[in-house]
Structures are given as structure tokens and as C-alpha cells.
């Protein structure tokens, strides 16, 4: 009797063990086909030259070309300049906005929260098109406003400096509210007793902000800094729609240069090398930021 039941118990146990893998199979297959395979294939592609049937092994030629390509370094410098200006500006405004909305003096917080978050739900291409009209040097509303208050008009898309500032302006408008909502959620978790104790000790609003709010939000600040840095390094939509990388490649970003090589010149091997160089840069900067801010948290 025992020997008869043993195979049945073993089969039932195997079926129970297989059920989780069967349930995971669709997700694993989808991940393998649409995520893992393209990543591996693009890595292999970065060691080739030519395209299609004419592709041939090229070793490290694409990466050596990358180091000697002045246009790649121009794109990297443009991306870095936008990053250094835009990320601190955006996150600083977002933090001040969140603190203001979280104030006990503010009513209808849900309405304010919805209002500041609305730009984030606007499509990136639509945002670029809207600001292209607003910043038009001839008929744009921004230059008309500057003229109304006695300031000279700005050639937003004709001067390299102002073209980069236009990209910074669009990014700040689009993402500040998104980060403000994240900070606002973090502020909800700060115990009120900390502020009350600081007030008892005679701390003013600025001292409470630097001694209580900022340290309490450090994990959230780390999250937004890393996320914003990664997003800016991958910047594509806004400069592509606003300026097309001009004038004179002043707003050409690394992602735009990757796109040009891959889908305009069909140099997929070199485009893949650019993609992996960007991936390495993002990984290193993210690790450095997490290490530095993590050490400060300790």
C-alpha cells in the first residue's frame, strides 16, 4: 500500500513545485525576449561595424573611435552643463514648494498638490511643442512679456547659451512638481515633535529647515538626485523637439547623438557603443552619489 501511494505523492509534490514556475513563465519569457535579449544583442553589436548582412567584427574599434570623436565629447559636455544647472535648480524649487504646501497655514493641500503635479502628466513631445511656440523669438509669449516690462527680447533658439537655458526651463517646468510631490510625501513622515522640540530650543524657520527637514528627507533627497541625474543624462525628447540639437550642436545630447548614428546614419555598432558608454557613465555617477550621500547619512 505504501509503495503504491509513494509515486502518487511524488507526482503531486512535483506538480505543486512546478506551479510557481508555470505562473512566472509568461513574465520570464517576456523579460527575456524584450529586455535581456536586446541588451545582450546590443552589446555584441557594439563590437561590429557596418549594418545588416554587411556587419563584420570590429573588436574595440567603436570604443576607440568614441574616445577620438569630438562630437561625442561635445554632446557629453552639453549634457553635463544642462545637468549641473537643471538638477539643483529643479530639486531646490521642488523642496521649497513641498515645504510651502506642507505648511499649516496652507489650506486645500490636495488642490495645490494636484496643481503642481499637472505638468508631469503632460507628454514630453507636447511639452516641447508648446514651449517652442512660447519661446519663439518673433511671436512667442515669453518675448512679448519681456518687451512689455522693458527687457530686450531673447533669441532662445539662435544663441547657444539661451538654447541650453530653454531646455533647462522646459525640464524644470515639467519635473519640478513631480519631485515636489515626492518631497511632500516624505514630509508627511517627519514627526511633528521634532519641529516642536526645535521651536522650544529657539530655532527659527531657517534653522528648523536645515536641522530637521533636510536631515529627515535625506533618503528621499538621495532618491530624487539619483533619479534626476539618470534622467538628465538620458535627455532626448525636449532638445530634439525644441532645438533639434542646435544651434551649432549647442544642445546636442548623448542620447540625441546615439539616435543620429543609429537611425540617421544606420551605424548601429557605433550607436551601441555610445549606449554602453552612457550606461557606464550613469552607473558610475549613480554609485558615487549613493556612496557620498550614504556616508553623510551615517
Using only CA atoms, what is the Rg? 26 Å
Oligomer: single chain
The biggest sheet amounts to:
2 strands, antiparallel
Mean pLDDT: 86
Low-confidence stretches: none
What is the overall silhouette? globular
Strand order of the largest sheet: 1-2
Residues in β-strands, percent: under 5%
Number of extended strands: 2
Distance between the termini: 64 Å
State the helix count: 13
Can you describe this structure?
It is a single chain. With 298 residues, this protein is mainly α. Helix content is 76%, strand content 1%. It has 13 helices and two strands, in the order H-E-E-H-H-H-H-H-H-H-H-H-H-H-H.
Provide keyphrases for this structure:
298 residues; 2 strands; mainly alpha
Topology, please?
Layout (H helix, E strand, L loop, with lengths): L1 H44 L2 E2 L6 E2 L3 H7 L2 H33 L6 H9 L6 H11 L6 H8 L11 H29 L3 H9 L4 H12 L1 H16 L3 H6 L11 H11 L3 H30 L1
Antiparallel strand pairs: 1-2
Summarize the structure.
With 298 residues, this protein is an all-alpha fold. It has helices spanning 2-45, 61-67, 70-102, 109-117, 124-134, 141-148, 160-188, 192-200, 205-216, 218-233, 237-242, 254-264, 268-297; strands at 48-49, 56-57.
Amino acid at each position: 500500500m505504501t509503495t503504491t501511494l509513494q509515486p502518487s505523492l511524488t507526482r503531486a509534490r512535483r506538480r505543486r513545485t512546478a506551479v510557481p514556475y508555470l505562473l512566472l513563465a509568461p513574465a520570464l519569457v517576456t523579460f527575456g525576449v524584450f529586455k535581456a535579449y536586446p541588451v545582450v544583442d546590443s552589446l555584441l553589436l557594439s563590437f561590429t561595424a557596418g549594418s545588416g548582412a554587411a556587419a563584420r567584427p570590429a573588436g574595440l574599434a567603436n570604443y576607440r573611435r568614441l574616445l577620438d570623436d569630438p562630437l561625442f565629447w561635445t554632446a557629453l559636455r552639453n549634457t553635463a552643463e544642462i545637468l549641473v544647472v537643471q538638477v539643483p535648480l529643479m530639486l531646490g524649487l521642488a523642496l521649497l514648494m513641498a515645504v510651502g504646501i506642507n505648511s499649516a497655514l496652507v489650506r486645500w493641500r490636495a488642490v495645490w498638490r494636484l496643481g503642481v503635479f499637472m505638468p508631469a502628466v503632460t507628454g514630453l513631445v507636447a511639452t516641447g511643442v508648446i514651449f517652442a511656440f512660447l519661446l519663439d523669438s518673433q511671436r512667442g509669449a515669453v518675448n512679448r512679456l519681456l518687451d512689455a516690462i522693458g527687457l530686450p527680447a531673447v533669441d532662445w533658439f539662435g544663441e547657444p547659451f539661451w538654447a541650453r537655458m530653454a531646455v533647462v526651463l522646459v525640464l524644470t517646468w515639467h519635473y519640478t512638481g513631480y519631485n515636489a510631490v515626492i518631497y511632500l510625501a516624505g514630509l508627511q513622515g517627519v514627526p511633528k515633535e521634532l519641529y516642536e522640540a526645535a521651536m522650544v530650543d529657539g530655532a527659527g524657520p531657517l534653522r528648523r529647515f536645515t536641522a530637521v527637514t533636510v536631515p529627515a528627507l535625506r533618503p528621499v533627497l538621495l532618491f530624487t538626485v539619483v533619479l534626476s541625474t539618470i534622467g538628465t543624462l538620458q535627455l532626448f525628447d525636449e532638445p530634439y523637439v525644441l532645438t533639434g540639437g542646435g544651434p551649432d550642436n549647442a544642445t546636442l545630447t548623448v542620447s540625441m547623438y546615439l539616435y543620429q548614428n543609429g537611425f540617421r546614419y544606420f551605424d548601429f555598432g557605433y550607436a551601441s557603443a555610445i549606449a554602453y558608454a552612457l550606461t557606464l557613465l550613469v552607473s558610475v555617477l549613480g554609485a558615487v552619489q549613493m556612496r557620498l550621500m550614504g556616508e553623510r547619512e551615517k
